[in-house]
Amino acid sequence: MKFEIPARKKLVYEMNIPVRWGDMDAMGHVNNTLYFRYMEMIRVEWLRALGCEPHPGGEGPVIVNAFCSFIKQLEYPDVAVLKMYASDPARTTFETWVTMERETDPGVICAAGGATTIWVDFPKQKAIALPDWVRALVSDDAPAAGA
């Protein structure tokens, strides 16, 4: 199964992650599970940059599904260059997308993935409408924040 990142999306954040020796597996490339960790790292840093750190007594984002297409290997030593995009705000959800490149091979996508994010009232454990400020941030017609 292959997922395609949509053409209509908004760049919301970029970050570099050094590839560590310990990220590699016995085959000499970054273990597949780490790509999901890298996507988690950029998502969390984007939310922190927005001042949106979830806490159990409030509301915030929850990932309801995630995927990653592995195209080329990431290896040590290098730096993974991640770009995060958002699209398709709905009543309670929005989509996030991440591309990964090697700093030593700019412009060549090594992996691409994404996640559906739902906005949740944590004490009630129930989906709620996206706040207006979140909707504005992930709408492709609004300027990017933190990019």
What would a concise description of this structure say?
The chain has helices at 32-49, 132-138; strands spanning 10-18, 59-70, 79-87, 93-102, 105-121, 126-127. The chain has 147 residues and is α+β, with helices and mostly antiparallel strands.
User: What is the terminal-to-terminal distance?
Assistant: 30 Å
What fraction of the residues are assigned to beta strands by DSSP? Answer: 35-45%
Helix content: 10-25%
- What is the approximate shape? globular
Order of helices and strands: EHEEEEEH
Low-pLDDT residue intervals, each spanning 5 or more residues: none
Rounded to the nearest angstrom, the radius of gyration is 16 Å
Give the structural class.
alpha+beta
Number of helices: 2
Task: Tell me about the largest β-sheet.
Answer: 6 strands, antiparallel
Q: What value does the average pLDDT take?
A: 91
Number of strands: 6
List keywords for this structure.
147 residues; alpha+beta; six-stranded antiparallel beta sheet; 2 helices
Structure description:
The chain is α+β, with helices and mostly antiparallel strands and 147 residues long. It has two helices and six strands, in the order βαβββββα. The protein has helices spanning 32-49, 132-138; strands at residues 10-18, 59-70, 79-87, 93-102, 105-121, 126-127. Strands 1, 2, 3, 4, 5 and 6 form a six-stranded antiparallel β-sheet that branches. Strand 3 and strand 4 form a beta hairpin. The two termini are 30 Å apart. The mean pLDDT is 91.
